[in-house]
Amino acid sequence: MSITSASERVWFITGSSSGLGLDITRHVLSKGDIAVATLRKPEVLDELVAEYPKERLLVLKVDVTVHQDILDAFKKTKEVFGRIDVVVSNAGTGLLSEVEGTPDDVARALFDVNFWGSVHVLQEAVRFLRDENAPGKGGRVFQITSGMELVGFPGCGFYSATKHAIGGLAQSLAKEVDPAWNIKLTIIALGAFGTNAVNAMAKLPVHPAYVNPDLVVAKWRKAMIQSQSGVFDPTLTIKGDAAKAAGAIYRLSEVDAPPLRIPLGCVDLARGATKDFSDEVEKWASWSEGLDKDEYQN
């Protein structure tokens, strides 16, 4: 086991191969903390491994759709560093496809990564922080979701569904844990940041019923893809800097009383969604009047 000082926090990060996960890994290391970077292809981080000693960076092969991979990674982290201070459940993938045009097997595979993979990380994170860390030490857990958890986007129905699902489960989990365990869970709804996520997402052919270019979903597809070749340059329309988002998440890990949910880089989207829902609640509130059993009517 490596000897770690109390000032060095141990971060366990899933989806560290690229994008936000990689930026969080880099930021953690730049701050003098320890990173356990998990990803499907460890060789992707060979250059980063060459920069840092094994006492600072541990790279582990984890496919979040394989439950045993997750359990083994937490176990290995315990063996090497003795504890975990922060868990970032970040691994995920995208899908561009109309709801009607998405085969069941494709949708289920998406849920296997974005929902069930995250579920198993969260379950083991809570168990580890409670049972493996020193009694009462606890730790931080960040579940990364998306602005599409807050608002369903056309062409991204199943992706939005995975984010709705894991966001809802994480909220329930946060309310289940015993405060004495000192485990603080925050759900981060991430906005649009300049990563390779759009290039990496699966893109299914347009369903024949949705080829009309005037449809909202067709316009959204065009905005996502940018060209007939399917090459997307996120620097053209996306202003968010993923490295800065990683810095914000690091600072959030130092907040004594962190929020349960926070929109990061999608505040306007969150405000709009909240207002739209609030307006509809008030507009249609009267429809709930008189629905109680007769004996409970005033």
Automatic annotation (TrEMBL):
InterPro entries: NAD(P)-bd_dom_sf, Sc_DH/Rdtase_CS, SDR_fam, SDR_oxidoreductase. It comes from Dichomitus squalens. GO terms for molecular function: oxidoreductase activity. Keywords: NADP, Oxidoreductase. Pfam families: adh_short (PF00106). Signal peptide: none annotated. This is NAD(P)-binding protein. Belongs to the short-chain dehydrogenases/reductases (SDR) family. It comes from the Eukaryota.
